[in-house]
Amino acid sequence: MRKLSVFESISTDGFFCDEKNDMSWAHRGPDAEFDGFTAENAGGGGTLLFGRVTYELMKSYWPTPKAQQDQAAVAEGMNNLEKIVFSRTLEDPGWKNARIVNGDPAGAVRELKQGSGSDLVLMGSGSIVSQLTQARLVDSYQFVVVPIILGKGRTLFEGVKDRLNLKLTKSRPFKNGNVVVWYEPAK
Fold this sequence. Notes:
By secondary structure, the protein is an alpha/beta fold. Helix content is 29%, strand content 28%. It has one domain (4-185): 3-Layer(aba) Sandwich (Dihydrofolate Reductase, subunit A). Helix 1 runs parallel beside helix 4 (72-80). The chain starts with a strand and ends with a strand.
């Protein structure tokens, strides 16, 4: 059975984007250690899952020469991995190894998890994270906690109605102030 992981950057006060849906605050200056971690993650394989908004943001950057110049290893991973975008409006994915699923994300992920293939990684896509969390389909969460307080913004878990206790499985601080934490749903 395939596993589903969520990978997200969040502010110290728990938001994945600010009140204007901006996520640029999550991209701090160069840090060789953190950049190495990011490149390693991108090379780890898997099938990437996105909502339409995050997908279009990623598609606008990773296939470009600038991405190749700035972060070659991450760009290679992002461009070569299989990608699934959940969208009711997008007709042409327009990115290598990408396909569109226009049905219910929870139903589609249930089916994907039952099939064979690489594990699934959901990036960004707050409304999809919320839906899949509510459906109890997420096997692990990996959060990059960025040392910034936004004051206002969107939480990944808007719409989750039931409490979900998590168990910390690992953490790793970086010199740039980011701390990566890994959680699994508590049994």
